[in-house]
Amino acid sequence: MVSRNIKCPNCGVYNTNRDYCSECNTLLSYKKRRELAHKKEQEARLDLRRLEKKNNPSFFEKYEAHRFWMVRAFVKVIKSIWMAVMAVGIFIAWLIAAIAA
């Protein structure tokens, strides 16, 4: 096994085969640093998506809780029609795939 001697960038102590410094507990492993950076990036992307979804709701999300009952009823009718159209489209796609196979 190859031993790794890594100098701590914080305190200057040499550490052998360690991920963290024995003196100041600073992270030394570049793999773990990369994993942590990737995890932070991913969390930032998820936060951005949540913020976009909150700031730009869809048509249905925007008007489902409207104060006028006519608007709410209209949205429910449109949503029902949309779901029926999608169900028919999915069935046709499944039928074509079943016939082709």
From TrEMBL:
Organism of origin: Bizionia gelidisalsuginis
Highest rank taxon of the organism: Bacteria
Keywords from the UniProt entry: Membrane, Transmembrane, Transmembrane helix
Transmembrane segments annotated in the record for this chain: 80-100
Name of the featured protein: TFIIB-type zinc ribbon-containing protein
